[in-house]
Amino acid sequence: DGVDYEDAAVLDPICNAYKSIAQQSKFLPGQDVVVIGTGPLGLFSVQMARIMGAVNIVVVGLQEDVAVRFPVAKELGATA
């Protein structure tokens, strides 16, 4: 109903990232966050943590992700 398929496709991982950061982890602004994984959910979690006021956002992932996904995580707000 007015939402195109591209936007609808990312709603699930965005909502899961919000639930993980805001509800399940009991995160508070000013805290540090560790995100495990650099897939879509991990990258959305980086964005969510940044938006919600995380000080340091550390991303943990596979060696094969260093060349492509880690730079994206940095662009989205990861600090390490």
From TrEMBL:
Organism of origin: Limosilactobacillus vaginalis DSM 5837 = ATCC 49540
Cofactor(s) required for function per UniProt: Zn(2+)
Keywords annotated in UniProt: Metal-binding, Oxidoreductase, Zinc
Family statement: Belongs to the zinc-containing alcohol dehydrogenase family.
InterPro entries for the chain: NAD(P)-bd_dom_sf
Keyword Transmembrane helix: no
Name of this protein: Uncharacterized protein
SUPFAM superfamilies, alphabetized: NAD(P)-binding Rossmann-fold domains (SSF51735)
Recorded superkingdom: Bacteria
GO MF annotation, one: oxidoreductase activity
